[in-house]
TrEMBL record:
Gene Ontology terms for molecular function: N-acetylmuramoyl-L-alanine amidase activity
Protein's name in the database: N-acetylmuramoyl-L-alanine amidase
Biased composition annotated in UniProt, kind: Basic residues: 351-364
Region (Disordered): 314-407
Annotated keywords: Repeat
Length: 407
């Protein structure tokens, strides 16, 4: 959509006989600039017939300046008689005689009537001259195929009208209403502001916006990339802190906000472990070293290795108990037997602990996690990367982990 706006007269033209402050040329110049602003907000392309208020262009040339436009609109205020007249008060649209602008002309005249609350109703007029349209601007517009109209904003010979138009706030509301009328008439919708989507660093924190609503995630988990994040009520990503799920399970949100999984957390000088699903581990742990004595991470490693031993527990116990435990065995074979027995005692303990761990994990596979798994599958394909953020957090995380392993 492209519209050509014409400010009517130039310079200081048509002073109001009822209000000496009012010049039609000056007021319509202001009005057409406001119309331009509001029309452009609808994404409408606006061309004007003049660059400056002081320069004039011939009537016909102003009309032909609308070549390629969908509408030519010339702004005026009318006059009646030679002096002030406080009774004549109505807006009129002088439309091209070919009728091409009648609809929008009536719509705009009625808009002016409503805004200015004129005494007489809006009307449209046609004025035929010897060469077609009587008005040069309309003749020019018609010549280039543009529906054209002259919009008279009531009568500046009326002091109340002049005073109303001199009010800048009124002029602004008028221009806005006229732009709205044009947009409505041509079925133009105000372009929606672009909805935020993805990560935004704002107000000192990180928010994640869902593209569909333009709102940030609030009081909820959101999976971005491979990681889960928690956002507080203000929509800010929580980090370096624990978040308790509805089932009581604790999750740790790292420096970069991502939920820790299957790793050690050093928090306020204490060591914590989170499982693969992010749930904080509670209960007894089985720790195992390698041949060098370095601690191996992971759960179930040592328990799994002990499985064959555990399977033979009953059988082995029978054998070793008979060997006695009171005295120091003298020979190597007996010594080995006792060692085996000590080991089995320990592994029996391990097995009980392992059972506790398993129960703990079962408890944690509560509703919260199922919901998150559900979200995860729903959220597939909507992943957005938070560029440059992960590296920092992971680096810190690795340091924590190393510390924990060495300790
Ligand atoms: Zn005029």
């Amino acid at each position: 959509m492209r519209i050509c706006l014409d400010a009517g007269h130039y310079g200081k033209y048509n002073q109001s006989p009822a209000d000496s402050r009012y010049y039609e040329s000056e007021m319509m110049w202001k009005l057409h600039l406001l119309q331009k602003k509001y029309l452009e907000e609808y994404g409408i392309e606006v061309v004007t017939t003049r660059d400056t208020q002081e320069t004039d262009l011939g009537l016909y040339a102003r009309g032909t300046a609308s070549a390629g436009c969908d509408l030519f609109l010339s702004d005026h205020s009318n006059a009646v008689g030679s002096g002030a007249n406080s009774t004549v008060d109505y807006p009129a649209a002088y439309c091209a005689i070919d009728g091409s602008a009648d609809g929008i002309g009536m719509a705009l005249a009625q808009c002016v009537e409503q805004m200015m609350k004129t005494s007489q109703p809006a009307r449209i007029e046609h004025r035929r001259g010897s060469r077609g349209d009587y008005y040069g601007v309309l003749r020019g517009a018609t010549a280039v195929g543009t529906p054209g109209l002259i919009l008279e904003h009531s009568f500046h010979t009326n002091g109340a009208v002049a005073a109303w138009l001199l009010n800048e706030e009124n002029l602004d509301r008028l221009a806005k209403a006229e732009a709205d009328t044009i947009a409505l008439y041509y079925n133009l919708l105000m372009p929606e502001p672009e909805k935020k989507s993805g990560w935004y660093q704002e107000e000192g924190g990180w928010r994640y916006y869902l593209g569909n609503t333009g709102d940030p995630v609030r009081n909820d988990w959101h999976k971005s990339g491979a990681d889960w994040y928690w956002f507080d009520g203000a929509g800010f990503m929580v980090h370096n802190d624990w978040k308790q799920g509805s089932d009581g399970t604790w999750y740790y949100l790292k420096e970069d906000g991502s939920m820790a999984k299957d790793e050690w957390i050093v928090w306020k000088g204490e060591l914590y472990r989170v499982l693969e699903d992010g749930a904080m581990f509670l209960g007894c742990m089985c720790l195992e070293t390698n041949e060098k004595g370095a601690l191996l991470t992971g759960f179930g490693g040592c328990a799994a290795r002990m499985a064959p031993v555990l399977a033979k527990e009953d059988e082995a116990q029978e054998k070793t108990v008979s060997g006695g435990t009171g005295s120091e065995p003298s020979d190597k074979a007996d010594k080995e037997k006792v060692k085996e027995h000590e080991k089995e005692k320990a592994s029996g303990e391990t097995r009980r602990k392992r059972k506790t761990v398993k129960n703990g994990m079962r408890r944690r596979m509560g509703s919260e996690w199922r919901n998150r798994r559900k979200k995860e599958s729903e959220g597939k394909g909507k992943k957005t990367e938070k560029a440059g953020k992960h590296e920092v957090g992971e680096g810190k995380n690795n340091r924590n982990k190393e510390t924990a392993e060495k300790d």
